[in-house]
Amino acid sequence: MTRWLILSLAVLMGVPAAAETLVAARTIRAQAILTAEDLNLTPGSTPGALSRPEEAIGLESRVILYAGRPILADQVGPPALVERNELVSLVYATPFMRIATEGRALGRAGLGESLRVLNISSKTTVRARVTGPGQAIVETP
């Protein structure tokens, strides 16, 4: 009777799921788009590492990912839509006005990411958020 009670309690309480860590299946160069073939799951948990392939597929590697090593969340991000030194359409918008000019990207960034852009007209550097390919909107404080 006690064996059934213990077994019932174990089932009701649930058995902890085995933790898995996402690792690179092969060495992946920086700026490569990750696919399912690039990824493997290994048993165990690594703090800061991704744990499911869906979290990484379609993202871009920010650094070289070495085979068998865990893939950390800050090592991947959205694919870059703006490249360094690329001319971008730079927009400053408020509820009352909209100013559009041309700028030069001072780094690489993906959709929604922030980067520094040199306003070609005024020669000042502003922080902007990427809104599309070759497009950025000035971030206001």
Secondary structure: elements and pairs:
Layout: H1 2-13, E1 20-24, E2 39-43, E3 60-61, E4 76-77, E5 80-82, E6 87-93, E7 98-105, E8 109-110, E9 114-119, E10 124-132, E11 135-138
Parallel strand pairs: 6-11
Antiparallel strand pairs: 1-2, 3-4, 5-8, 6-7, 7-9, 9-10, 10-11
Care to describe what's here?
- 9% of the residues lie in helices and 38% in strands.
- It is mostly beta strands and 141 residues long.
- The chain folds into two domains: 18-77, Alpha-Beta Complex (Type Iii Antifreeze Protein Isoform Hplc 12), CATH 3.90.1210.10; 80-138, SH3 type barrels (Roll).
- The chain has a five-stranded mixed β-barrel.
- The longest helix has 12 residues, at 2-13.
- 21% of the residues are buried.
CATH superfamily of the largest domain: Antifreeze-like/N-acetylneuraminic acid synthase C-terminal domain
Content of β-strand: 35-45%
Radius of gyration: 23 Å
Order of helices and strands: HEEEEEEEEEEE
What is the CATH third-level topology name of the largest domain? Type Iii Antifreeze Protein Isoform Hplc 12
Largest sheet: 5 strands, mixed, barrel
Which architecture of the largest domain does the CATH hierarchy give at level 2? Alpha-Beta Complex
Structural class determined from secondary elements = mainly beta
Unreliable stretches, pLDDT < 50, 5 or more residues?
Answer: 1-16
Q: What is the tally of beta strands?
A: 11
How many independent structural domains? 2
Helix content: under 10%
Total count of helical runs of at least 4 residues: 1
Average pLDDT level:
88
As laid out across the biggest beta sheet, the strand order is: 6-7-9-10-11
Distance between the termini: 67 Å
What best-fitting shape do the alpha-carbon axes yield?
elongated
Subcellular location: Periplasm
Function: Involved in the assembly process of the P-ring formation. It may associate with FlgF on the rod constituting a structure essential for the P-ring assembly or may act as a modulator protein for the P-ring assembly.
Protein name: Flagella basal body P-ring formation protein FlgA
Organism: Dinoroseobacter shibae (strain DSM 16493 / NCIMB 14021 / DFL 12)
